[in-house]
Design a protein that fits this description.
mainly alpha; two-stranded antiparallel ribbon; 14 helices; about 0% strand
Length: about 325
């Protein structure tokens, strides 16, 4: 299949996936929220205000007209449509937060991106180093030790590890007069790079350790699969150092499953690392989705769900193209 045809196929599959996800989410919110206009209205809203919201969102119309209106035009806010098929495309309007859903999501995205990308860099570094180390010493104490730590990291829930990190590195250190890490919050990178890293250090560690356990086992298995290949034996016969053989030759050949799994994990977390954001008070997409679901703010629930789906679809496509490109380069 040519690259052009592959791109068109991936693009059409991605669009179809997102449309199906959006329609499914639309119906589920209709089932979950029986009186969405009243839930979206402010607490002291009058019946006239509730009726106005109902008319603006066309909640008094049949479901198929509501769905078509949501997909095509969306609610009119100050004369401007907020639908997907208008420019700029929007994901609706939150009457509870009095803001377009797209703006709300974009305002939370930097915090979630900072959390996920920083954690991903840490877990990739840890898992590659420890995975290759374990494969190089297969069956020895180094292999058993790294496997033990990987199992521990995978077994401890994010909720528990986050609380433990917060207790040890915030509470106990602060009690001892070493207030190095803050308990919660997020500082934008553009405002202060040092404070940005200081506020995200514990969330990064919490998220990275759980993922590093899984990836360590993947890296070890992938490297062992190619460790007995002819070109590895040839490299060893030429007298190349073992470290160079494993980290340069074997790891390069074993990267494809690591890339595919990594892209999928990053896409999933970009939809909202809900538990980590909640423990450390990071105002990201996960917290926005949870608070909106509790408040019955269904336009935001649909918007955050579609955004999470788009992140998974995008990262999966990136992983597929990257591994395909590497395979062609190696053949």
């Amino acid at each position: 299949m040519t690259l052009h045809r592959r791109l068109l196929t991936t693009l059409s599959q991605s669009i179809a996936t997102l449309v199906i996800l959006l329609i499914a989410c639309f119906f589920l919110t209709r089932l979950a929220y029986r009186n969405p206009a009243a839930m979206l209205a402010p607490i002291n809203a009058t019946q006239e205000s509730i009726d106005a919201i109902s008319r603006a969102l066309r909640l008094d119309e049949p479901w198929y007209l509501q769905l078509w209106h949501y997909l095509y035009r969306g609610p009119d806010v100050q004369g401007a449509p907020m639908g997907l098929m208008h420019w700029p495309p929007g994901l609706g309007y939150s009457f509870r937060k009095q803001a377009p859903v797209t703006d709300l999501i974009l305002s939370k995205l930097p915090a979630t991106l900072s959390l996920v990308i920083g954690a991903a860099l840490i877990w990739f570094a840890l898992s590659i180093l420890s995975g290759v180390w374990a494969a190089r010493h297969q069956g020895k104490w180094q292999d058993h030790l790294s496997g033990l730590f990987a199992c521990i990291f995978m077994s401890v829930p994010v909720l528990l590890s986050g609380i433990l990190f917060s207790y040890v590195f915030f509470y106990l250190l602060t009690q001892a007069g070493w207030a190095i890490f803050p308990s919660s919050g997020y500082v934008p990178l553009s405002e202060s790079p040092l404070q940005w890293a200081r506020h995200l250090a514990l969330p990064w560690a919490t998220l990275a350790l759980v993922e590093a356990g899984l990836f360590q086992r993947v890296v070890r298995g992938a490297v062992l699969d190619v460790a007995q290949a002819d070109y590895i034996r040839t490299a060893r016969a030429k007298g190349l150092p073992e470290g160079r053989i494993y980290f340069s030759h074997a790891l390069s050949a074993a990267l494809n499953p690591i890339i595919s799994l990594g892209a999928l994990e990053i896409g999933t977390l970009l939809g909202g690392a809900i538990v980590t954001e909640t423990i450390f008070g990071i105002d990201g997409l996960g917290r926005l989705a949870v608070s909106s679901a509790i408040e019955g703010d269904f336009p935001v629930v649909i918007g955050t769900t579609v955004t999470a789906g788009a992140a998974i679809v995008l990262m999966t496509a990136v992983g597929d193209f990257w591994t395909e490109w590497r395979e062609k380069g190696r053949s």
